[in-house]
């Protein structure tokens, strides 16, 4: 009886080992075959904005590199946080990815602690894609033509004017509040879901001032209905060489904010899949036409193999310090 029991237990152990080995082989084969179906590339903003303008050409090149179809999925709202949340809760199999910006990957959590996800905890960086500055715009109807005139107007009319951004906690919300704080002015923040409505209202004079990405702003500037006052990056943008940086104003010395874009996967995505995505992204970013497209969008240089996790940690410290020392109104 005991010999029979031992024999049976040995058989069970062998069967378990065989099943485990078979599962491992199946998993390895599945990962080697990745991708075997379309990949959803989630963008947390409506079509036409800065993030979307980066995502679409990148998706095309990544698709060629990985021999798979990439489908850009726009999930706008909450300064990109709704799109990020969709990816955080997706199955971690490499078929749902996020093209994220520093708004939803860092900033929104700091002014909305109840946000259900923490990007540093719940997402895995695949790699940095590019950086892009922003531009402060004035409605032509206001009559302001220069950065100096802008600051002077706000100082003479505390609380009278407003500025728009792409959402509460967005990169451009921070950009505007830093200007407000350092110039000692009173100006009201108005949050939009995306740049299209923001640009149209700015052109029509519904809002007097606003921040947009350098590329999406171009068509509004060329229409003549808005005036570019300054760019947010420390250096002037190659798209607008005659437009000063905010840091050129005496009260804004050292001002240097640029948005960045990174490819992210849900936590738990198998390492072989992440490795394959990293290699594909690195290869895609060597594509000359893609780099030219990013340059045309006002792309700013990034370091080779830039550490996204470190960038997120550094920006968290930067934005956290700002939130603690200013009255960032999360309701507007």
Give a quick precis of the structure:
Helix content is 46%, strand content 18%. The chain is α/β, with parallel strands linked by helices and 332 residues long.
Instruction: Note the total helix count.
Output: 12
Strand order of the largest sheet: 2-1-3-10-4-11
What coarse outline follows from CA principal-axis ratios? globular
- Please identify the top-level CATH class of the largest domain: Alpha Beta
Write the H/E string, N to C: HEHEHEHHEEHEHEHEHEEHHEH
Q: Topology of this protein?
A:
Layout: H1 2-32, E1 39-43, H2 50-66, E2 70-74, H3 81-88, E3 96-101, H4 102-111, H5 119-122, E4 123-132, E5 134-139, H6 147-156, E6 162-165, H7 171-183, E7 188-191, H8 195-204, E8 209-213, H9 214-222, E9 226-231, E10 259-266, H10 271-284, H11 288-296, E11 299-300, H12 308-325
Parallel strand pairs: 1-2, 1-3, 6-7, 6-8
Antiparallel strand pairs: 3-10, 4-10, 4-11, 5-8, 5-9
Write structural notes for this entry.
This protein is of the alpha/beta class and 332 residues long. It has two domains: 165 residues, D-Maltodextrin-Binding Protein, domain 2, CATH 3.40.190.150; 119 residues, D-Maltodextrin-Binding Protein, domain 2. The strands form two sheets. A six-stranded mixed β-sheet has the order 2-1-3-10-4-11, sandwiched between helices. The longest helix is centred in the N-terminal third of the chain and has 31 residues. The relative contact order is 0.17.
Attribute tags:
6-stranded mixed beta sheet, single chain, 2 domains, alpha/beta, D-Maltodextrin-Binding Protein, domain 2, 11 strands, 5-stranded mixed beta sheet, about 45% helix, about 325 residues
């Amino acid at each position: 009886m005991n010999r029979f029991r031992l024999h049976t237990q040995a058989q069970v152990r062998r069967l378990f080992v065989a099943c485990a080995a078979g599962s491992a082989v199946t998993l390895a084969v599945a990962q080697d075959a990745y991708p075997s179906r379309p990949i959803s590339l989630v963008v947390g903003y409506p079509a036409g904005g800065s993030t979307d303008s980066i995502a679409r050409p990148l998706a095309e090149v990544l698709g060629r590199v990985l021999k798979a179809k990439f489908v850009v999925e726009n999930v706008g709202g909450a300064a990109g946080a709704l799109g990020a949340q969709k990816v955080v809760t997706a199955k971690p199999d490499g078929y749902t990815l996020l093209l994220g910006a520093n708004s939803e990957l860092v900033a929104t959590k700091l002014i909305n602690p109840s946000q259900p996800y923490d990007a540093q905890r719940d997402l895995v960086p695949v790699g940095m894609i590019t950086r892009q500055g922003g531009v402060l715009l004035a409605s032509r109807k206001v009559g302001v033509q220069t950065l100096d005139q802008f600051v002077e107007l706000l100082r003479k009319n505390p609380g009278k004017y407003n500025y728009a951004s792409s959402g509460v906690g967005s990169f451009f919300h921070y950009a505007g509040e830093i200007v407000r704080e350092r110039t000692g002015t009173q100006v009201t923040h108005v949050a939009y879901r995306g740049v299209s409505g923001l640009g149209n209202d700015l052109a029509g004079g519904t809002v007097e001032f606003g921040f947009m990405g350098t590329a999406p702003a171009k068509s509004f500037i060329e229409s003549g209905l808005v005036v570019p006052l300054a760019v947010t990056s420390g250096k002037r943008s190659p798209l607008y060489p005659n437009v000063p940086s905010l840091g050129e104003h005496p009260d804004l010395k050292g001002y240097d904010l640029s948005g960045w874009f990174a490819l992210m996967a849900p936590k738990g995505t198998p390492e072989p899949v992440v490795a394959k995505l990293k290699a594909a992204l690195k290869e895609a970013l060597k594509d000359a036409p893609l780099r030219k497209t990013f340059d045309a969008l006002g792309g700013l240089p990034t370091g080779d193999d830039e550490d996204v996790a470190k960038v997120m940690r550094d920006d968290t410290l930067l934005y956290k310090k700002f939130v603690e020392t200013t009255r960032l109104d999360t309701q507007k």
